[in-house]
Design brief:
The structure is a single chain. This protein has helices at about 1-5, 40-50, 70-75, 85-90, 90-95, 105-115, 120-125, 125-145, 155-170, 180-195, 210-235, 240-250, 260-290, 290-305, 320-330, 365-370, 410-425, and strands spanning about 50-55, 60-65, 80-85, 150, 340-345, 345-350, 350-355, 360, 430, 440, 445-450, 455-460. With about 450 residues, the protein is of the alpha+beta class. Strands 1-2-8-5-3 form a five-stranded mixed β-sheet. The protein has a three-stranded antiparallel β-sheet with strand order 4-12-9. A two-stranded antiparallel ribbon has the order 6-7. It has one domain (about 1-460): Cytochrome p450 (Orthogonal Bundle). Bound molecules: protoporphyrin IX containing FE.
Length: about 450
């Protein structure tokens, strides 16, 4: 605590006051009617109490921060005072102790090993892996289109994201392991919320067999990661992969990473990377299918710039509307809809006192749906991100977080989103199957539910 105080940026406030918020517990008190709709709860808290609100969640004192000033304070101005904390602890059940769940030197050593794999020039060089993976998807979708069938695009977008991630980072095709991995991923992403501290935000009727099942699914994930590590140890892996870098990497004091630590890192990149990107891809294609004007404008831009050929990373600078569509999707449906921190020492956030050892929740979803910064927030409108318009406040829009813990995969995700969406929209028109209302479910990521059944039509051109 002393160390954090040394670097602590003190916000001078004469008399920091308590933030406004609901009386009692938001789970057991006046707002209990919202407990089954977490997203609405977050938006409603912001609407009623503003950009910093204070509440009890079960036994915990929690602040929700959504105003740009408050979010910037936590992520960028005073990050040393904010650690992963109790809500993140539940994630270790599934991610292990890796880059996402650790702090300080432990985190730094892990991030340093993976960082070079996310540098822009390296990612751009890997763009053909993305377009090649989409080509493989088209082999399937052409058949679906010819037969007039429908499919759930969520599964296929996860498949694309998994294929890209495995080939670019691990030098192996993770889709070879998909049959084993996917049921465990699906189960665990739900189970983690229940077994983690965030369970307080969910109903209490969850059956406890989830806990037992979790162990079984954890073993599947660990087993696959161990196989990939062992392949590399035996000299059969790519010399230019994150796995090799981790095997050769070390902590600050020179200690090599253990098998368990390497496994946690691989699980972290896999889980943090493929589910989020898969959701973002699905939401983007869904949004385009729902807005004919957006679709037509996107089709026109793609036709003009690409004239039917596959896009490259270099083309993206000439496709500004494509980027606007992706940005607006990440505003409306941020795959990471909330992330938590715990305070080390007392702090003052935007004039409000926040005690040491309490939790701060940062929900991109509520910030991105704040009408003060995003007029008519429920409307899907890529024009908000038109380069000619004033850019949104940096911390009114943060689908990838911010500060030193900003998403390591941001540039990969954005590259992938633009290339995949461009290729799909060039080739197909997707129509949502009738009677299939899609809603956003606040799981670990913001999942479209129950599924996104689409009819796939080949475009004439
Ligand atoms: C649209 C896709 C994605 C979204 C919306 C997203 C969102 C985020 C957010 C909001 C955070 C910050 C969490 C916090 O501060 O507590 C984060 C962190 C992280 N993301 Fe992503 N992410 C995406 C894709 C990826 C990809 C493709 C990878 C890797 C292949 C990845 C790996 C990570 C990791 C390892 C962290 C932890 C970084 C650290 O703490 O140093 N993400 N992501």
């Amino acid at each position: 605590m002393t160390e954090a105080r040394e670097d602590h940026v003190v916000t001078q406030q004469p008399t920091p006051k308590e933030a406004p918020g609901p009386q009692g517990s938001v789970l057991f008190g006046a707002l209990s009617e919202f407990k089954k709709d977490t997203l609405r709860l977050l938006v409603e808290l912001r609407r009623q109490y503003g950009g910093v609100s204070r509440m009890k969640m079960g036994p915990y004192l929690v602040h929700q921060v959504t105003s740009p000033e408050a979010v910037k304070h936590v992520l960028q101005d005073n990050p040393r005072n904010y650690v992963r904390g109790r809500f993140y602890r539940g994630f270790t059940l599934f991610f292990g102790r890796g880059m996402l769940t650790t702090d300080g030197p432990e985190w730094k050593a892990r991030r340093a090993v993976s960082q070079p794999f996310f540098h822009k020039p390296r990612l751009r060089a890997g763009a053909p892996v993305i377009t090649d993976t989409v080509g493989q998807l088209f082999d399937k979708w052409d058949g679906v289109a010819d037969r007039g069938e429908q499919l759930d695009i969520t599964d296929d977008m996860m498949w694309v994201a998994m294929g890209v991630l495995g080939r670019l980072l691990y030098g192996v095709d993770l889709r070879d392991y998909a049959e084993r991995l996917l049921p465990s991923v699906r189960f665990s992403l739900k189970a983690m919320i229940i077994t983690g501290e965030v369970k307080q935000m969910l109903p209490k009727w969850i059956p406890t067999r989830y806990q037992r099942e979790l162990k079984r699914h954890q073993a599947v994930l660990n087993g696959v990661m161990d196989e990939i590590i062992d392949l590399h140890r035996a000299g059969g892996g790519s010399p230019d992969s994150v796995v090799t870098a981790l095997l050769n990497g070390q902590h600050a004091e020179g200690r090599p990473f253990t098998q368990r630590e390497i496994r946690a890192e691989l699980k972290t990149l896999f889980l943090a990377g493929h589910e989020t990107t898969g959701c973002a891809l699905t939401w983007t294609l869904y949004a385009v299918s729902q807005h004919a004007d957006v679709r037509r404008r996107l089709e026109a831009e793609l036709a003009e710039v690409l004239d039917g050929r596959a896009p490259t990373a270099d083309d993206l600078a000439d496709l500004p509307y494509l980027r606007q569509v992706v940005d607006e999707t990440l505003r409306m449906y941020p795959p990471i809809w909330l992330f938590p921190r715990d305070t080390v020492a007392d702090d003052v956030i935007a004039g409000y006192h926040v005690p040491a050892g309490t939790t701060v929740l940062i929900p991109p979803y509520a910030a991105h749906h704040d009408p003060e910064h995003w007029p008519n927030p429920e409307a899907f409108d890529p024009e908000r991100f038109c380069p000619a318009r004033k850019a949104p406040d940096r911390y009114a829009y943060f689908p990838f977080g911010g500060g030193n813990r900003k998403c390591i995969g941001m540039d990969l995700a954005l590259l992938e989103l633009q290339l995949v969406v461009a290729m799909v929209v060039q080739r197909y028109r997707l129509d949502l199957a009738g009677g299939n209302p899609v809603r956003a479910a606040a799981l670990v990521s913001l999942r479209p539910q129950p599924q996104v059944m689409m009819a796939v039509h080949r475009r004439k051109s």
